[in-house]
Write a structure and sequence with these properties.
Helices cover 50% and strands 18% of the residues. It has 4 helices and 3 strands, in the order αβαβαβα. A 3-stranded parallel beta sheet has the order 1-2-3, with helices on both faces. The protein is globular and about 35 Å long. It starts with a helix and ends with a helix.
């Protein structure tokens, strides 16, 4: 209950959400759904080098910006661009 309350407080107070979605996670999926309902800008980062596939629920959702990356610097660039877009 404490973790849920803490994470929901963070989610409600944030301006945007950045999620690493390379590993399937029910918790992250729940938070992304709540962020979408709240109208938060969302960036999802997916590492293409792994053995998992990106969820079609994420890749097909027009409310989520998805960036697939292979190098850490590409993910960092995507984050910088996303934050700049949110600020403008």
């Amino acid at each position: 209950a404490e973790i849920y309350a803490r994470d929901m407080s963070w989610l409600n107070s944030c301006d945007a959400v950045i999620a690493e979605v390379s590993a399937p996670s029910l918790g992250v999926g729940y938070e992304l759904g709540r962020a979408e309902v709240a109208g938060k800008p969302i960036l999802c980062l997916f590492d293409e080098r792994g053995d998992t596939r990106l969820s079609a629920m994420i890749s097909g959702n027009p409310a989520m910006r998805v960036v697939c990356y292979r190098e850490l610097n590409d993910a960092k660039t995507a984050i910088d661009t996303f934050i700049a877009d949110v600020k403008s």
